[in-house]
Amino acid sequence: MKCSEIKNQNLEKVIHQIREAAAKGADIICLQELFATTYFCDVEDYSNFDLAETIPGPTSESLGELARELNIVIIASLFEKRAPGIYHNTAIVIDADGRCLGKYRKMHIPDDPGYYEKFYFTPGDLGFKVFETKFAKVGLLICWDQWFPEAARITSIMGAEILFYPTAIGWERNQDEVENQDQYAAWQISQRGHAIANSIPVVSVNRVGYEKDGVTQFWGGSFVSSGTGKLLYLASHDNEETIVVPVNLADSRIIQRRKFLLNNRRVETYKPILNILIDGD
To answer: CA-CA distance, 29 to 65, in Å (whole number)?
Structure first.
């Protein structure tokens, strides 16, 4: 969805969309990264810390009441105020009875033009997480975590049946179309690769459109991939969408039994990854 600079307006909008998805039969509903605000990390501005809130707090409590009413699971990404001077990019899982099952704090924090997240967020300190909800065991990772196969692998072997990635990513306004499509393809392919390597579905939920007077066009393109990498749904680059996609968890279990990818890992040979550092230019 596209966000405005009025926080309450975004919450009202997303509540409407959650109700729409639930009416269509959704069991698990995932919201985009930092859905309650515009993407404020495009600038370094101390006043933006006023957008943060505690967890539990007003937004998580509103979503908890909604989840209980509709008998659904909600995955929501929030700007968490943990303590004075300590803030996180945090996703929570609210079960169908309205309980918050816990939180995942984004582990990999970017610091690129237009994405000054290290100015705002302390790297996650809770490790990788899997949450057993009424409908499935869900694994949470957030946006830039998408580029790190280690994160997907660890979350998968912890028992996740579906990986969810709340996301905020897009194109710079001055890029040409070839570069745009190359960037989007790399983003999507990397995540479908996580689905294939771990034999579980991947759900990636992105923003869309321009916000404020920013230089970034969020490229939408949200998608659901099966455990074989097949696209079960692909959203447009331009339009807001609320979509329900059927996912058969039994298919993933069959794939895992046939491929034995996780069982055939050579864990004892992977220790060098802990010691190898790559120096930048």
So the answer is: 14
Q: In the beta sheet, which residues pair with residue 280?
A: none
- For residue 55, give the amino acid letter: I
- The active-site residue, picked from 3, 41, 100, 143, is 143
Look at the chain and count its residues: 281
- Shortest CA distance to 250 belongs to which of 202, 205, 203, 199? 199
- Averaged pLDDT, 33-56: 96
| Residue from 3, 33, 100, 161 carrying the catalytic annotation | 33
For residue 201, say if its preceding peptide bond is cis, omega within 30 degrees of 0. no
pLDDT value of position 258: 63
Q: Which of 13, 103, 106, 129 is catalytic?
A: 106
Q: Is the pLDDT of residue 189 over 90?
A: yes
- Pairwise CA distance, residues 120 & 147, whole Å: 20
- Parallel/antiparallel/unpaired status of strands 137-140 and 115-116: unpaired
The per-residue pLDDT for 265 is 80
What domains does the chain contain, in order, with CATH numbers?
7-265 (3.60.110.10)
Closest listed residue to residue 94, CA positions, set 142, 47, 141, 134: 134
- Please confirm, yes or no, whether 61 is among the known catalytic residues: no
pTM of full prediction above 0.85: yes
Verify whether residue 33 is a known catalytic residue: yes
Active-site residue, 240 included? no
